[in-house]
Amino acid sequence: MNRGVIHVDESPIPLERWWRYLPNWLKRFLPVRGGRAEDHHGKAIFGFTVFLLSESIVFLSFIFTYIALRLTHLGNWLPPGVSGPELSTLVIINTVVLLSSSFVIQPAENALKHHQLNKFRWLWLMTICMGTYFLIGQGIEWSKLDFRLSTGLVGSTFYVLTGFHGLHVLSGVILQITMLVFSFRQGNYDQGHFGVSATTLFWHFVDIVWVFLFSLLYLWQA
């Protein structure tokens, strides 16, 4: 097979012409130049981006449902004796740790691109620790709340939103551990590092989702 073959782009939209004007950060999420046969990384990242878009639709459905319920139950959102989720020091620290991890995992991926394997491992391990810290902190927060999943709308929506997000954080940590283990295989990343790029992208997605959830659950006290 000729590795230099370019598949013909039959789309009525001149994507090939517009591609050259896109910023570099966006190009990494799109099939490169009509889908070159050798560009497995670019096409795989594009497919993974589509997967994250589908995940974002699920989160958006939860978020819009939460907003609709809050707006229609302003007077009786919290049952008697329930204070609801509070913006505690623990929540703030957890949020800072999770969001800061995006500024650690990206340099880790960049280090791998430049074949700095030891630097990649240490930064990657730091990201794993930060994600684990967030999960433990969230578990501690849950244990201190004065409401449970069955406590009206506030309980069901809070635990579904944070639980679903926490499941994604856990998945991200597992993926990171897997990529770290693979880095100890001789020459594992010599032919590419799609797994690391996809995990990094997934982690950024998890952090962005938390910004919205944090704003809704802790900052919106109306």
TrEMBL record:
Gene3D superfamilies: Cytochrome c oxidase, subunit III, four-helix bundle. Pfam families: COX3. It is found in: Cell membrane. This is Cytochrome c oxidase subunit III. The keyword Iron does not apply. GO terms for molecular function: cytochrome-c oxidase activity; oxidoreductase activity. The chain crosses the membrane at residues 45-69, 89-108, 120-138, 158-182, 194-220. Its main location: membrane. PROSITE patterns: COX3 (PS50253). Its EC number is 1.9.3.1. It comes from the Bacteria. It is a multi-pass membrane protein. It is an enzyme of class 1 (oxidoreductase). GO terms for cellular component: plasma membrane. Keywords: Cell membrane, Membrane, Oxidoreductase, Transmembrane, Transmembrane helix. One of its GO terms (biological process) is aerobic electron transport chain. The keyword Membrane applies. Residues 18-222 form the Heme-copper oxidase subunit III family profile domain. Belongs to the cytochrome c oxidase subunit 3 family.
